[in-house]
Amino acid sequence: MIRLLNYIIEIKDVFVLVFCIILSFTLMMSTDDDPDSPFRNVALDMVGGLGQYIYAVESYFGMAGENKILRTQNAELAFKNMQLQDALLENIRLRKLLGFSEQRQLRLTSAEIIGQNPHNIISGLLLNIGTDKGISKYSAVLTADGLVGKVIEADRGHSVCQIITDPNSRVSAKIQRNRELGIIAWDGGNRLKLLYIAKTIDAQKGDVIVTSGMSQIFPENIKIGVVVDVSYESKGMFQEILVQPSVNLNRLEEVQIEIKEVENAPGK
């Protein structure tokens, strides 16, 4: 049926011309001299109706073709829009990293995460660069959002990062607001805990926790997380402070590693 309609559209002019000639010849042969005769009116209505039908069919198929083109263009524009959004986010991320590096005067190099730590003893990440790029043991690992961990192994082409949620990880930290010192450790779940903060110290939800600088590993004032709960219910002299890490460790694809000359650092 569609092929027939397309064929009619292609030869519509010839078809209408032939039909009009036949109709005109029929009208001339008619002996009816009344211009308002029913026969003439019906014939004219037929010509007008045929023309409208052919025009409607042509318009329909023309619109269908235009809609197909528009759908294709829409898909192409949507794809380009996604590319532009991705480029914008990448630009914002790089700007943040640049500003972060300049602010803290760190020598940083980028590394991609290519897997999990092959050793079951330590929770960590396998990175795609090593000593050939200046990476050494105990180098700090971070992102623009905050601290990730530290390098615990490095060979020529790879390195292993121990993340801050590893059960064996300890980081010297402080409450940014009042400079009170404590130790960051894993809480056994998806969060961290700030240890050794006395009950007499003012700690509040929303407090930002940063590295203390009292370490040969981590530079000062790298963001670790934000306090989400403070409890005084424990029997000891210290508060129970839960901290939400500022870095989503489950969604990392790339990290920054500090380049420094220290090869072995005994501190935290």
Low-confidence runs (pLDDT<50, min 5 residues)? Answer: 262-267
Based on secondary structure, the structural category is alpha+beta
Order of neighbouring strands in the sheet with most strands:
1-2-5-4-3-12
- What is the N-to-C succession of helices and strands? HHHEEEEEEEEEEEE
Task: Write down the overall geometry.
Answer: elongated
Percent helix range? 25-40%
Spatial separation of the terminal alpha carbons: 80 Å
Give the oligomeric state.
single chain
| Helix count, DSSP H or I runs of 4 or more residues | 3
Alpha carbon gyration radius: 38 Å
Describe the structure concisely.
The chain is α+β, with helices and mostly antiparallel strands and 268 residues long. The protein has helices at residues 2-10, 12-29, 38-104, and strands spanning 108-116, 124-127, 140-143, 146-154, 159-163, 171-175, 181-186, 192-195, 208-211, 223-231, 240-245, 254-258.
Task: Explain how this protein is built.
By secondary structure, this protein is an alpha+beta fold. The chain folds into three domains: 1-105; 106-165 and 252-258, Rod shape-determining protein MreC, domain 1 (Thrombin, subunit H, Beta Barrel); 171-245, Rod shape-determining protein MreC, domain 2 (Thrombin, subunit H). Helices cover 35% and strands 26% of the residues. The protein is built from three helices and twelve strands; from the N terminus they run αααββββββββββββ. Strands 1-2-5-4-3-12 form a six-stranded antiparallel beta barrel. The protein has a six-stranded antiparallel barrel with strand order 6-7-8-11-10-9. α1 packs across α3 (38-104) and α2 (12-29) runs antiparallel to α3 (38-104). The protein is elongated. It starts with a helix and ends in a 10-residue tail after the last strand. The model is unreliable at 262-267 (pLDDT under 50).
